From TrEMBL:
Full protein name: USP domain-containing protein
Region annotation Disordered: where it falls in the sequence: 675-701, 841-860, 884-909
Organism placement in taxonomy: Eukaryota, Metazoa, Ecdysozoa, Arthropoda, Hexapoda
Organism: Mythimna separata
PROSITE patterns xrefs: USP_3
Annotated SUPFAM superfamilies: Cysteine proteinases, WD40 repeat-like
Recorded GO CC terms: P-body; PAN complex
PANTHER family named among the record's database cross-references: DEADENYLATION COMPLEX CATALYTIC SUBUNIT PAN2, PAN2-PAN3 DEADENYLATION COMPLEX CATALYTIC SUBUNIT PAN2
GO biological process terms on file: nuclear-transcribed mRNA poly(A) tail shortening
USP domain residues: 495-979
One example GO MF annotation: poly(A)-specific ribonuclease activity
Sequence ranges of Polar residues compositional bias: 850-860
Length: 992
């Protein structure tokens, strides 16, 4: 029979040479023309001089042959040339009984253990069990299950995924061989000659059990429904090897006790010891005797002539054999430590598998090329230079900096240009300072001095990095499992707020309101029947934060109600989606939100109180009066909510938008709007006193929010033409800082933080306004006098323009003498009534700027805000603010400069000491982020500052809270709490 497998053979040109080749020459074998197979290679295995071969198997996935010897060593060989691939030790003393190959590696079975290793020799796991006493064979049931047997009364079913075993008791005397024919039956042969056919799905019960041989069983194999066995028979009490092979049809087995009954025999020249079917042929089997005689049997034809050949075992006996899946290769192992590879006569390059995958080899060591001395075309630069052992480099190796493309460094922008720059949208305009010549090179010239390390450090601009806990936190909160990343960000035990919902930019202000105890107590006690009430939702959110136990919470209900408020949408406080936070000005947005929420809570409390009183007298509630701010507002018809009348408060643009032009007035609430008078328009009611009325009606119409945040002022408007003066009461809930003209227009910021707060509380400005007596727009001086200080002072810091942000970044400088411009000696048209700070015109009885500047002390730095403020309200309505740390010397005010003789009659009406309790900061990152500094303190515990960045909460120092000199940190909202509010007990329920 001739074999033609030349198309399936693999070339051996890619095999490695050198240390992987055998150090001996294969012996010469005389080919036999009558045999179908002939020897291709014969090698002495590792340890073959001391141990014999005990297991051999062809790899089912790669072109490898795996061998195990009696010393517990495993070696693999590649290809028909049997090139050694890997070699490793499996067990110290026990021999390798059986080997199977899987996709991830091999399983090597010893007497008491099962070892799993990858093909490169790295061990993965070792399985041992008390049930493994004398293991002999192994069979792969599926990709995740193995079955093992041995000279013991148990079969072991092993799950590879769980590495869990199941012991199956058997009645036979052990299981020495496990073979299957491809179906559901597996043949278990014991040493006493019994064969049991078991179903791999239910291996606990044998389907058929019969005696194959009377003495003992040597080997068996299955192909389909055919089973072949060989063994020994009992003759005169002595076991004798049977010179034939018994063939069984598992479909026609009969329950008989006579050995060999129901089978036919195939005689052989020599008694067979090992059997194996040829997988590529039907009905062909290989029978190997102990002396090396091999016979190719025709199992279905008992009278057919067999093909035979001899294996040179060198006077030793053959112990193991295996057949490749293609039947192109046979391998035999003997007790002398040799492996013999046979293939068909005409197939010199046999393959072990039809679809073998590539075997992974070690990287080859690249050597130097061989070049003839007379070769003139060889490029000697292609030969790499050997590495130097001293750590130095070759002279021709240039540093990496010479191979990088580096552009010329531009010169920094002149600071004078940045100081005088005016922004028009995204474009800045500045006059040319003429510090450079025309067509001068705008780059830094590189020379040898620039290469010096010290010079490089001078030219390098190192920006201050943004700390990690200030940056935007993006944490996916898992409600059903552990949150290790969240625990790293928040180790304080304080609850955070998630940012997964739209309009979550207000989380920092929500935390500030939560830790403002009077506000928290008011909202927790508020109840009403309104469907979308922000006060109710805030109270629900605060109660959820109280009971969270430090777990993060969501402001879902509050944000849903917040989106339904039409005033919030009109003010631009509702963002369309979560990604819109990076495209809006968060500095102006959070300040507008602060003003809106205080006004909204105030009017919701008043509305609820009016409805309760109306229900008591069984009459419909009266509508809350809309404050008159000299802005015409179209009336809105009342709406019905939950069966009750509801009239929403209509906010105007003047109340909520911050100052956009020079000294624009703050948002104001008419005092008559708070009292909601019913006797006609409140504008026509004259107000004579400068303080808020303290009668029963005023107390009845004030809410807890107005009692905490309201700043009472008396506003005077005076026409400079006819000297007509009008006054009215006004109240504001948040003080907006008004920056001086030098910040808005000039190049340098002037004045400290205390001066900004003082000028913002008692605002003075000159603006054209309508005068009824003159019947035209005339210059009008508007000034305000404080009549009441709030327990909690909320300050909106502005900072929306570039100049206002520069105020915090650069800090105040010492006032220098200003140069006189054209017409500096010209008298001011407003005279003593001029309220413009830094006016360059001449004023009577007012010292010149040069004289005043020489005595003016150095102001405090703008980048540091004071921790405590001492605000004194004088009898004339003026305000004196001092840092508590400094001496309480009164700064000069415009009124004191003009009328110094009147200062003796001014007395202090009231005095409040404020302490910084919270601050909302905008981090100028990409994307921008809003964080909050909050001072929390329990009873008898020193107050501690915390940085609230949504889910990230970390403690910070007090110095870090007041420092705003960094380019990336801009203050937005500040909260100063008076000492009386801190010491006062928190009421459980608001006053009725």
């Amino acid at each position: 029979m001739e074999y033609h497998y030349s198309d399936l053979c693999m070339p051996t040109d890619h095999l490695l040479t050198g240390p992987y080749t055998a150090d001996y020459a294969p012996q010469y074998m005389v080919p036999e023309q009558s045999a179908e197979y002939e020897v291709r290679a014969s090698v002495l295995v590792d340890g073959g001089d001391r141990f014999g071969v005990s297991a051999v198997v062809f790899d089912k996935y790669e072109e490898l042959i795996w061998m195990g010897n009696q010393g517990g060593h495993v070696t693999s060989y590649y290809g028909p040339g049997m090139q050694k691939y890997t070699s490793f030790q499996v067990h110290e003393t026990e021999e390798v009984r059986d080997i199977i190959t899987v996709e991830q590696g091999i399983f090597a079975l010893t007497k008491t253990s099962l070892r799993h290793q990858i093909r490169r020799g790295i061990p993965k796991r070792t399985f041992k069990s008390p049930n493994m006493t004398d293991m002999q064979c192994i069979y792969q049931v599926s990709s995740s299950k193995l079955m093992m047997g041995g000279h013991q009364n148990k079969l072991i079913d092993l799950d590879l995924n769980k590495m869990a075993e199941t012991a199956i008791p058997i009645q036979e005397e052990g299981c020495a061989v496990l073979r299957s024919g491809g179906g559901s039956l597996v043949a278990c042969g014991s040493a006493n000659g019994m064969v049991a056919l078991r179903d791999i799905r239910t291996p606990a019960t044998a389907e058929h059990t019969f005696a194959a041989h009377s003495a003992c069983l040597s080997d068996l194999d299955m192909q389909g429904d055919l089973l072949i066995t060989c063994g020994f028979t009992q003759t005169g009490g002595i076991p004798v090897a049977e010179p034939y092979v018994l063939v069984w049809d598992v479909r026609c087995l009969r329950a008989t006790s006579a050995p060999g009954a129901g089978a036919w025999s195939l005689p052989t020249v020599s008694p067979p010891l090992l059997l194996h079917f040829l997988p590529a042929f039907s009905g062909r089997a290989v029978a190997l005797s102990g002396d090396g005689h091999v016979a190719l049997l025709h199992v279905n034809a008992s009278g057919a002539e067999h093909s035979t050949f001899q294996v040179d075992t060198q006077s030793s006996s053959c112990s193991v054999m295996d057949v490749s899946s293609t039947s192109q290769a046979l391998v035999f192992g003997d007790q002398a430590g040799h492996l013999h590879l046979f293939s068909p006569q005409h197939n010199h390059e046999p393959v072990f598998n039809n679809f073998s995958r590539a075997t992974e080899f070690a990287d080859q060591v690249v050597g130097l090329p061989f070049v003839a001395f007379t070769d003139t075309t060889f490029q000697y630069s292609s030969v790499p230079l050997p590495p130097l052992t001293t750590g130095t480099k070759w002279f021709n190796e240039l540093p990496e900096a010479f191979f990088k493309k580096v552009y010329r460094r531009p010169k920094p922008i002149d600071p004078e240009v940045l100081k005088t720059m005016k922004m028009q949208g995204p474009i800045g305009y500045a006059p040319n300072p003429r510090t450079f010549k025309r067509n001068q090179m705008p780059y830094i010239e590189d020379n040898f001095d620039d290469l010096h390390p010290s010079k490089q450090n001078e030219n390098k601009y190192v920006a201050q990095p943004i700390p990690k806990h200030y940056q935007k936190v993006d944490i996916r909160y898992n409600k059903h499992g552990p949150n290790e990343e969240l625990e790293k960000c928040n180790k304080t035990g304080l609850p955070g707020l998630e940012t997964t919902l739209p309009n979550s930019y207000c989380n920092s202000m929500l935390q500030v309101l939560y830790y403002t105890l009077p506000v928290k107590a008011t909202l927790l006690a508020h109840t009403c029947a309104k469907e979308f009430c922000l006060s109710c939702e805030l109270g629900f959110l605060f109660r959820m934060l109280d009971t969270s136990g430090g777990a993060p919470c969501q402001a879902n209900n509050f944000l849903r109600a917040f989106r339904t408020v039409p005033e919030a949408a009109a003010l631009g406080l509702i963002l369309p989606d979560r990604g819109a936070d990076a495209r809006v000005d968060l500095v102006a947005l959070i300040q507008s939100w602060n003003r809106f929420i205080l006004h909204q809570i105030h009017y919701e409390i008043l509305e609820t109180r009016k409805k309760e009183k109306a229900l008591l007298v069984n009459s419909p509630p009266k509508a809350v009066r809309i404050p008159n701010l000299n802005v015409k507002v179209r009336p809105v018809p009342p709406q019905v909510m939950n069966g009750q009348y509801s009239e929403e408060y209509q906010y105007t643009e003047l109340e909520f938008l911050g100052p956009a032009t020079e000294f624009e007035c703050q948002e104001e609430l008419r005092e008559d709007g708070w009292t909601a008078r019913e006797d006609g328009d409140a504008d026509t009611v004259p107000v004579d006193n400068h303080e808020l009325p303290n009668n029963q009606q005023a107390d009845r119409e004030e809410s807890e929010i107005s009692q905490l945040f309201a700043i009472g002022r008396h506003q005077f408007n005076r026409c400079l033409k006819c000297n007509k003066e009008e006054g009215r009461e006004s109240v504001v809930l948040a003080c907006a800082l008004q920056y001086p003209a030098a910040v808005r227009e000039g190049p340098e910021p002037r004045g400290g933080f205390l001066e900004l707060v003082r000028a913002s509380l008692a605002a003075r400005r000159s603006t054209p306004a309508w005068c009824e007596q003159c019947a035209r727009f005339t210059p009008t001086v508007q000034r305000g006098r404080i009549v009441r200080l709030p327990p909690i002072l909320a300050i909106n810091c502005g900072g929306a323009t570039v100049r206002e942000k520069a105020y915090w970044a650069k800090g105040a400088q010492k006032e220098m003498p200003e140069t006189k411009r054209g017409g500096g000696g010209k008298p001011c048209r407003y005279g003593l009534h001029c309220a413009r700070p830094g006016c360059h015109f001449k004023h009577p009885d007012r010292p010149s700027p040069q004289a005043g500047s020489s005595k003016s002390p150095t102001q405090e730095s703008n980048c540091i805000i004071p921790q405590q403020l001492l605000i004194r309200l004088q009898s004339d309505g003026d305000v004196v603010i001092n840092d508590k740390v400094e001496s309480p010397t009164e700064p000069l005010t415009p009124n004191s400069r003009a009328d110094k003789h009147k200062k003796k009659n001014v007395t202090t009406q009231s005095e409040e000491e404020y302490t910084l309790s919270a601050a909302v900061v905008c981090v100028e990152d990409n994307p921008k982020n809003l964080v909050a500094y909050i001072q929390t303190a329990a009873k008898d515990v020193e107050p501690v500052w915390y940085l609230f960045n949504d889910l990230s909460i970390v403690p910070v120092s007090a110095d870090e809270v007041v420092q705003f000199g960094a380019w990336w940190k801009t203050p937005c909202v500040l909260f100063y709490t008076s000492s009386s509010a801190r010491l006062a007990p928190v009421e459980d329920e608001p006053r009725s």
